[in-house]
Specification:
Layout (H helix, E strand, L loop, with lengths): L2 H13 L17 H7 L3 E3 L21 H9 L4 E4 L15 H16 L3 E5 L3 H4 L8 H18 L7 E4 L12 H21 L9 E4 L7 H14 L4 E7 L3 H5 L9 H17 L7 E6 L13 H18 L2 E4 L6 E2 L4 E2 L2 H10 L6 E2 L3 E5 L7 E6 L5 E6 L2 E2 L6 E4 L2 E4 L1 H7 L6 E10 L5 E8 L3 E2 L2 E4 L3 E6 L5 E7 L21 E4 L4 E4 L1 H4 L8 E7 L4 E9 L2 E4 L1
Parallel strand pairs: 1-2, 1-8, 2-3, 3-4, 4-5, 5-6, 6-7, 7-8, 12-19
Antiparallel strand pairs: 9-10, 11-13, 13-17, 14-15, 14-18, 16-17, 18-19, 20-22, 21-28, 22-25, 23-26, 24-25, 26-27, 27-28
Helix pairs in contact: 6-7, 7-8, 10-11, 11-12
Amino acid sequence: MSRLLGRLLVLGLLAAGLSVAGPAAAREPVRTPAQAVAAMQPGWNLGNTLDATGADETSWGNPRVTRELLAGIRDQGFNSIRVPVTWGQHQSADHTIDPAYLARVQEVVDWALDEGFYVMINIHHDSWQWINTMPTDHDNVLARYNAVWTQVAAAFRDASPRLVLESVNEPQFAGSSGDAENYALLAELNASFHRIVRGTGGGNAQRLLVLPTLHTNADQGRLDALNAEFAALNDPNLIATVHYYGYWPFSVNVAGGYRFDATAQADLMGTFQRLRDSLISKGIPVILGEYGLLGFDRHTGTIEQGEKLKFFELFGHQARISKVTTMLWDNGQHFDRTAGVWRDTELFGQISSSWRTRSGTAASDLLFVPRAAPVTAQTITVNPNGTGFTHVRLGNTTLRRGPDYQVSGDQLTLTAGLLTRLTKSGGYGVKASLTLRFSRGVPWRLDVVSYDVPRLSAATGTTAAFAVPTAFNGDRLATLKATYADGSNAGPHNWTPFKEFDRAFAPDYDAGAIKLTPEFFAEVSDGTPVNLEFVFWSGATVTYQVTRTGAAVTGA
């Protein structure tokens, strides 16, 4: 029976005044923890909603959750949904959870279960709001934590076994004596969570419980500490969880990490290798409860499109071969919860394809052809990733091997004749979007861009509002270096000359400007010229100088 027909049947029974069995009464397949975790792949996070720390679930800008939203997510191919919940602002002085709020969480969970999801709920931002004070306020924090789980476990005692409980999100502790104390505190919380949930009986007696590492990261020490907890608890129905947001310089585009280079790739590969060696090989299932790139919290364009696609392609492959269930972090920036569509269909296409297979990529998704010079053939490295390169297409037209392009090993050469045809029209910017086709997976888009070296102009402004007038001439900004005359680093993150994209600086292509932020100038020496080097994706670099005098800024 289709889910639509099933919903109509339920509505009909309700209209007739007949009762409908809820999730707890539904017949559920008996699965081992490993089988259940496999059935949860892939997963999605209902982020910035019930975990919002304001008055209600809309306080961080997302719409109120509807059953239709959950059905829409299910239709995208997701099998599990993580529902982060922040409880603290809904607790009274005696730690009682507001009944209306608890009922709302139950309503959302029931909808998700009815849609066929596995559902994971947790204690979320409480981790940094009050749980982190446990080193200096141990007894009060533990009592409050226990009160939350006592009430939540009782509320969901008879829920479907597809409901999974996660002890705490990204556990962290302030003012501790170091990792040894941190590990001990987290083990105490996890053990208390385990005891409370199991002690309520019913479905909770065998319910799958998820335990995180410290900070929910996959450093070896964190994994070893969690392994010791699993051994101590000796419960077969436990699952480990970590999060992954990539190699930090790449994840936020700072310190020259604007490419998904060998260092960023090694960080990703090493993470999954440690998960395999430390947990999976020992029979401990793993849920990667959040993944993405940290720069997405500001803007999904913080990392260049092709570089982010390469990250998600390799991430999906490593998760699949490692048998790790992944849950995409989405705080509203990926799936438009009002329109019911993906904001970046190309990105979701790469993510969803990686659940099943690999896709070919290339060194870049941008190929720059200068307008001020004769057009010549250009070569780009293709990364088949275990697939086979087949052909190149322009729209619905398959290009000709030989006259239009040649392939030698992993080198794809686009001929001067082809590039001349594609860029013969005037102006700058993308002149054509080619697709590189492989034997499986999604195609790789390669934009042919007509450009000239960008031009920057003099300007004046203030530390609160300063922008460099820029004729981008079809080029795109990759990163910014800032140094003083003596070669020392200027601006924020002074351990590197490369500044953070979208935080210290940001291009505004429509306005023809590059903005330097108040945060940048807050860490620039007064009266000392700063030499800027703007690095563009074509490979061009353009220098500029700014001087801050009090609140005034001049640039030349």
